[in-house]
Protein backbone atom coordinates (compact mmCIF):
# COMPACT_ATOMS: atom_id res chain seq x y z
CA UNK A 1 0.00 0.00 0.00
CA UNK A 2 2.85 2.36 0.92
CA UNK A 3 4.59 1.68 -2.39
CA UNK A 4 1.33 2.38 -4.22
CA UNK A 5 0.94 5.77 -2.49
CA UNK A 6 4.53 6.72 -3.29
CA UNK A 7 4.00 5.72 -6.93
CA UNK A 8 0.78 7.74 -7.08
CA UNK A 9 2.51 10.84 -5.67
CA UNK A 10 5.33 10.55 -8.22
CA UNK A 11 2.84 10.10 -11.07
CA UNK A 12 0.79 13.12 -10.00
CA UNK A 13 3.91 15.23 -9.60
CA UNK A 14 5.11 14.51 -13.12
CA UNK A 15 1.60 14.98 -14.52
CA UNK A 16 1.34 18.41 -12.91
CA UNK A 17 4.74 19.38 -14.22
CA UNK A 18 3.83 18.30 -17.74
CA UNK A 19 0.57 20.23 -17.60
CA UNK A 20 2.32 23.34 -16.33
CA UNK A 21 4.92 23.11 -19.06
CA UNK A 22 2.23 22.75 -21.69
CA UNK A 23 0.34 25.74 -20.30
CA UNK A 24 3.49 27.84 -20.24
CA UNK A 25 4.24 26.95 -23.84
CA UNK A 26 0.73 27.85 -24.93
CA UNK A 27 0.85 31.06 -22.91
CA UNK A 28 4.05 32.00 -24.74
CA UNK A 29 2.24 31.56 -28.08
CA UNK A 30 -0.64 33.78 -27.00
CA UNK A 31 1.66 36.52 -25.71
CA UNK A 32 4.20 36.42 -28.56
CA UNK A 33 4.96 39.31 -30.87
CA UNK A 34 2.99 38.86 -34.11
CA UNK A 35 4.82 37.98 -37.30
CA UNK A 36 3.79 40.07 -40.30
CA UNK A 37 4.09 38.45 -43.69
CA UNK A 38 5.04 40.55 -46.72
CA UNK A 39 2.93 40.65 -49.86
CA UNK A 40 3.89 38.09 -52.50
CA UNK A 41 3.09 39.14 -56.07
CA UNK A 42 0.65 41.64 -54.61
CA UNK A 43 -1.20 38.99 -52.60
CA UNK A 44 -1.66 38.94 -48.82
CA UNK A 45 -2.30 36.07 -46.41
CA UNK A 46 -4.72 35.88 -43.49
CA UNK A 47 -5.33 33.08 -40.99
CA UNK A 48 -8.52 31.86 -39.34
CA UNK A 49 -9.67 28.87 -37.28
CA UNK A 50 -13.38 28.12 -37.11
CA UNK A 51 -14.19 24.46 -36.65
CA UNK A 52 -13.48 21.93 -39.40
CA UNK A 53 -11.17 23.43 -41.99
CA UNK A 54 -13.08 21.69 -44.80
CA UNK A 55 -16.00 24.02 -44.01
CA UNK A 56 -13.91 27.18 -43.63
CA UNK A 57 -12.02 26.52 -46.86
CA UNK A 58 -15.28 26.43 -48.84
CA UNK A 59 -16.53 29.66 -47.23
CA UNK A 60 -13.47 31.73 -48.06
CA UNK A 61 -13.10 30.35 -51.56
CA UNK A 62 -16.57 31.73 -52.32
CA UNK A 63 -15.44 35.32 -51.68
CA UNK A 64 -14.30 37.65 -54.46
CA UNK A 65 -10.61 38.51 -54.25
CA UNK A 66 -9.65 35.23 -52.58
CA UNK A 67 -7.28 33.29 -54.82
CA UNK A 68 -6.65 30.20 -52.74
CA UNK A 69 -7.35 28.68 -49.33
CA UNK A 70 -5.03 26.15 -47.77
CA UNK A 71 -5.96 23.88 -44.86
CA UNK A 72 -3.61 23.32 -41.96
CA UNK A 73 -2.89 23.99 -38.30
CA UNK A 74 -2.00 27.04 -36.23
CA UNK A 75 -2.14 28.49 -32.75
CA UNK A 76 -0.30 25.75 -30.91
CA UNK A 77 3.08 25.14 -29.29
CA UNK A 78 4.36 22.07 -31.15
CA UNK A 79 6.26 21.78 -34.43
CA UNK A 80 5.05 19.84 -37.45
CA UNK A 81 1.55 19.04 -36.14
CA UNK A 82 -0.40 16.32 -37.91
CA UNK A 83 -4.12 15.69 -38.18
CA UNK A 84 -3.88 12.77 -35.77
CA UNK A 85 -1.83 14.72 -33.23
CA UNK A 86 -4.02 17.81 -33.49
CA UNK A 87 -7.12 15.73 -32.80
CA UNK A 88 -5.76 14.73 -29.40
CA UNK A 89 -5.91 18.39 -28.30
CA UNK A 90 -2.39 18.12 -26.90
CA UNK A 91 -0.59 20.19 -29.54
CA UNK A 92 -2.41 23.44 -28.77
CA UNK A 93 -3.14 23.84 -32.47
CA UNK A 94 -6.51 24.38 -34.08
CA UNK A 95 -7.56 23.41 -37.56
CA UNK A 96 -6.96 26.62 -39.49
CA UNK A 97 -6.92 28.04 -43.00
CA UNK A 98 -4.47 30.23 -44.86
CA UNK A 99 -6.43 32.66 -47.03
CA UNK A 100 -4.44 34.05 -49.96
CA UNK A 101 -6.17 37.17 -51.22
CA UNK A 102 -5.83 40.34 -53.25
CA UNK A 103 -6.04 43.30 -50.82
CA UNK A 104 -7.03 45.55 -53.74
CA UNK A 105 -10.20 43.48 -54.18
CA UNK A 106 -11.09 42.36 -50.66
CA UNK A 107 -9.99 43.85 -47.36
CA UNK A 108 -8.88 42.11 -44.20
CA UNK A 109 -11.91 43.68 -42.48
CA UNK A 110 -14.24 41.97 -44.96
CA UNK A 111 -12.52 38.64 -44.32
CA UNK A 112 -13.17 39.12 -40.60
CA UNK A 113 -16.82 39.92 -41.35
CA UNK A 114 -17.01 36.68 -43.34
CA UNK A 115 -15.43 34.83 -40.43
CA UNK A 116 -18.13 35.86 -37.98
CA UNK A 117 -20.92 35.52 -40.55
CA UNK A 118 -20.02 31.91 -41.33
CA UNK A 119 -20.11 30.44 -37.85
CA UNK A 120 -21.96 30.25 -34.56
CA UNK A 121 -19.89 32.97 -32.86
CA UNK A 122 -20.90 31.94 -29.34
CA UNK A 123 -19.97 28.24 -29.56
CA UNK A 124 -16.90 27.48 -27.46
CA UNK A 125 -14.35 24.87 -28.53
CA UNK A 126 -16.05 23.84 -31.73
CA UNK A 127 -18.49 24.49 -34.52
CA UNK A 128 -21.61 22.42 -35.06
CA UNK A 129 -20.91 18.74 -34.43
CA UNK A 130 -17.15 19.22 -34.20
CA UNK A 131 -16.09 19.59 -30.59
CA UNK A 132 -12.71 20.01 -28.91
CA UNK A 133 -9.93 22.57 -28.60
CA UNK A 134 -8.66 21.60 -32.04
CA UNK A 135 -11.91 23.03 -33.44
CA UNK A 136 -11.93 26.23 -31.41
CA UNK A 137 -12.36 29.63 -33.03
CA UNK A 138 -9.25 31.80 -33.40
CA UNK A 139 -8.57 34.91 -35.47
CA UNK A 140 -4.90 35.62 -36.06
CA UNK A 141 -3.51 39.14 -36.42
CA UNK A 142 -0.19 40.15 -37.94
CA UNK A 143 -0.04 43.76 -36.79
CA UNK A 144 -1.76 46.28 -34.53
CA UNK A 145 -4.07 47.46 -37.29
CA UNK A 146 -5.47 43.97 -37.82
CA UNK A 147 -5.78 43.42 -34.09
CA UNK A 148 -7.79 46.63 -33.77
CA UNK A 149 -10.14 45.56 -36.57
CA UNK A 150 -10.70 42.16 -34.98
CA UNK A 151 -11.32 43.47 -31.46
CA UNK A 152 -13.70 46.20 -32.63
CA UNK A 153 -15.76 43.79 -34.70
CA UNK A 154 -15.77 41.23 -31.92
CA UNK A 155 -16.95 43.83 -29.41
CA UNK A 156 -19.66 45.12 -31.77
CA UNK A 157 -20.95 41.59 -32.35
CA UNK A 158 -21.00 40.88 -28.62
CA UNK A 159 -23.17 43.95 -28.07
CA UNK A 160 -25.45 43.05 -30.97
CA UNK A 161 -26.00 39.51 -29.73
CA UNK A 162 -25.77 40.43 -26.05
CA UNK A 163 -23.52 37.42 -25.64
CA UNK A 164 -19.90 36.49 -25.19
CA UNK A 165 -18.09 35.82 -28.46
CA UNK A 166 -16.03 32.62 -28.36
CA UNK A 167 -13.33 33.55 -30.87
CA UNK A 168 -9.87 33.89 -29.40
CA UNK A 169 -7.49 36.51 -30.79
CA UNK A 170 -3.91 35.33 -31.31
CA UNK A 171 -0.77 36.93 -32.72
CA UNK A 172 0.15 35.05 -35.86
CA UNK A 173 3.28 32.92 -35.48
CA UNK A 174 3.29 30.10 -37.99
CA UNK A 175 0.94 28.16 -40.20
CA UNK A 176 1.59 24.48 -40.76
CA UNK A 177 0.17 23.18 -44.04
CA UNK A 178 -2.07 20.15 -43.59
CA UNK A 179 -1.90 16.81 -45.30
CA UNK A 180 -2.52 16.71 -49.06
CA UNK A 181 -5.77 14.77 -48.71
CA UNK A 182 -7.32 17.64 -46.72
CA UNK A 183 -6.83 20.21 -49.48
CA UNK A 184 -9.82 21.24 -51.64
CA UNK A 185 -11.77 18.59 -49.77
CA UNK A 186 -15.26 19.97 -50.28
CA UNK A 187 -14.66 20.45 -54.00
CA UNK A 188 -13.11 17.01 -54.54
CA UNK A 189 -15.51 15.04 -52.34
CA UNK A 190 -18.99 16.53 -52.89
CA UNK A 191 -20.70 13.24 -52.05
CA UNK A 192 -18.94 12.73 -48.73
CA UNK A 193 -21.62 12.54 -46.02
CA UNK A 194 -19.94 15.18 -43.83
CA UNK A 195 -19.60 17.53 -46.81
CA UNK A 196 -23.25 17.06 -47.80
CA UNK A 197 -24.66 17.31 -44.27
CA UNK A 198 -22.36 19.85 -42.61
CA UNK A 199 -20.01 21.72 -44.96
CA UNK A 200 -22.40 22.55 -47.80
CA UNK A 201 -25.28 23.62 -45.51
CA UNK A 202 -22.85 25.85 -43.60
CA UNK A 203 -21.61 27.37 -46.87
CA UNK A 204 -25.16 27.98 -48.11
CA UNK A 205 -26.18 29.67 -44.84
CA UNK A 206 -23.20 31.96 -45.16
CA UNK A 207 -23.90 32.79 -48.81
CA UNK A 208 -27.55 33.53 -48.05
CA UNK A 209 -26.64 36.12 -45.41
CA UNK A 210 -23.48 37.71 -46.82
CA UNK A 211 -23.64 40.62 -49.32
CA UNK A 212 -24.00 39.11 -52.80
CA UNK A 213 -21.71 41.76 -54.29
CA UNK A 214 -18.82 40.28 -52.28
CA UNK A 215 -19.37 36.70 -53.43
CA UNK A 216 -18.16 34.92 -56.55
CA UNK A 217 -20.85 33.90 -59.02
CA UNK A 218 -19.68 30.31 -58.81
CA UNK A 219 -17.93 28.53 -55.99
From TrEMBL:
The active site is at 52. It comes from the Bacteria. Residues 45-194 form the Peptide methionine sulphoxide reductase MsrA domain. PROSITE patterns: PROKAR_LIPOPROTEIN. GO terms for molecular function: L-methionine:thioredoxin-disulfide S-oxidoreductase activity; peptide-methionine (S)-S-oxide reductase activity. The keyword Signal applies. Residues 1-20 form the signal peptide. Pfam families: PMSR (PF01625). It is an enzyme of class 1 (oxidoreductase). It catalyses: [thioredoxin]-disulfide + L-methionine + H2O = L-methionine (S)-S-oxide + [thioredoxin]-dithiol; L-methionyl-[protein] + [thioredoxin]-disulfide + H2O = L-methionyl-(S)-S-oxide-[protein] + [thioredoxin]-dithiol. InterPro entries: Met_Sox_Rdtase_MsrA_dom, Met_Sox_Rdtase_MsrA_sf. The keyword Oxidoreductase applies. Keywords: Oxidoreductase, Signal. Its EC number is 1.8.4.11. Has an important function as a repair enzyme for proteins that have been inactivated by oxidation. Catalyzes the reversible oxidation-reduction of methionine sulfoxide in proteins to methionine. Belongs to the MsrA Met sulfoxide reductase family. HAMAP family: MsrA. This is Peptide methionine sulfoxide reductase MsrA. It comes from Hyunsoonleella pacifica.
Amino acid sequence: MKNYIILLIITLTFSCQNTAQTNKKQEAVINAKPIELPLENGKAKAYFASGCFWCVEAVYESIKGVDEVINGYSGGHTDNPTYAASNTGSTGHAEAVEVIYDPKVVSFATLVDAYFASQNPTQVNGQGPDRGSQYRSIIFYQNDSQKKIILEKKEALAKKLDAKIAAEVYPFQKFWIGEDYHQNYERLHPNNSYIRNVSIPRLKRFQANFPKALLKEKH
